[in-house]
Amino acid sequence: MLTDPFTRAVGEAERLVAAAPHIRTEQDLLDGYRYLAGGIVATTQSTWAMDRAQPEFLSGTGPHTKMGLDNPDTLYFGARISDDVEYVVRGIRGTTTDLSFQVLSGNYTDSNVPEGGTAFDDRALEIEPDGTFEVRFGPESGDGRRNYVQLPAGATQLVAREVYNDWTQRRGTLTIARADNGSLPKPLTHEAVERKWERAGEALVTRVKTWLQFPEWFYLNLPVNSLTEPRLTPGGLATQYSSVGHYDITDRQAIVITVPKSDAPYQGFQLGSMWYISLDYVNHQTSLTSAQAQTDPDGMIRLVVAERNPGVANWIETTGHLRGYLQFRWQRLARELTAADGPQLEVVDLDDVPAHLPYYDSNTIDAQSFTERIAARRLGIASRMLS
């Protein structure tokens, strides 16, 4: 059967998931199988939908197709490109906090992080008063041309990210087309269909291998229950700093994180599972931006990571994941960040949380108000229409 190569790849990917070294509990394994399902959807779609002859922006990850410690505050879009073709990207700037572009050369694999030297946000573009813009990516030197970006040799992907600091913000629109209008898709052949299924399977296995390896490079070599100083994010995101770590606590403990509310337009924190994907950010408060979080009178944001509800507004729910990843991001920066901009972390007994919150009396929240916060999250995600 034509789908045999893909079926075999699904079996290999399932074996990789089942043998993952971090699995300790039944939940760990079941999370892995759900992660695998999202990978099957994403790799099948991208293999069949992406065409360099007629490129389009596809959603790279979302609530049901997670990978790479996806940011709950970000819309990810990608298109396949070639370094010898000129492309026209048109759009309408939404009200979201940040819109950025990145050109990648190659793919993420379990042995390679692709070069991403061409990365910028929309501050580098001339945008019309009504929010419309056009930017061209091509092989020629820009030579001062308005909204023209030269593609580096070996360019294979154009990635766009739209970032919400406030989930009520409105997304924009983006399209991509070849300047020469490309060519019509070729009629399908038996050989072409067979190769599509082979490529989808290869992409699935690579996806699982890659994101099992990535934390080994950048997270798990750090001391447990710690966070790094803010640093430029690996992979070439020129306008993003991050602070990362991994945690391991019991259901009777909590992590209290104290961080200054930044002057960066976007500041966000999230938890990730050991599969290196976000936790359920739709139905649970597993992430907060600086706009969503409560800020204390001293200008500090104090987050409480815990399995059980400590009764505070900035509770970050572990949803049964007592081990996982910690991630801060700052974007659209106008300056370098220092250690003073970064977080401080301490592990405490859950019952002792009030003693570690100097403004505890104003941090508390009742059950109904917290339920309303979750309802607002669901609405914010639903309005993106990515499911």
What's the SSE pattern?
Answer: HHEEEEEEEEEHEEEEEEEEEHH
* Largest sheet properties: 5 strands, antiparallel
Number of domains: 2
Average pLDDT score:
94
Strand content is: 25-35%
> What are the low-pLDDT stretches, counting only 5+ consecutive residues below 50?
none
> N-to-C terminal Cα separation, in Å?
31 Å
Helicity range of the residues? 10-25%
Structural Rg? 22 Å
Structural class: alpha+beta
The shape is globular
According to DSSP, the number of beta strands is 18
Instruction: Please give the order of strands in the largest beta sheet.
Output: 1-2-8-4-5
SS field, number of helical segments: 5
Folded structure, characterized:
The structure is a single chain. This protein has 387 residues and is of the alpha+beta class. It has 2 domains: 4-215, no CATH class; 231-382, Jelly Rolls, CATH 2.60.120. It contains 5 helices and 18 strands. It has helices at 4-18, 26-49, 190-218, 360-363, 367-382; strands at 58-59, 74-80, 87-92, 98-105, 115-121, 132-138, 148-150, 157-163, 173-178, 231-232, 240-248, 253-260, 266-272, 287-289, 300-306, 315-317, 323-331, 344-349. The chain has a 5-stranded antiparallel β-sheet with strand order 1-2-8-4-5, with no helix packed on it. It has a 5-stranded antiparallel β-sheet with strand order 10-11-17-13-14, with no helix packed on it. A hairpin with a 7-residue loop joins strand 10 and strand 11. The longest helix has 29 residues, at 190-218. The two termini are 31 Å apart. The mean pLDDT is 94.
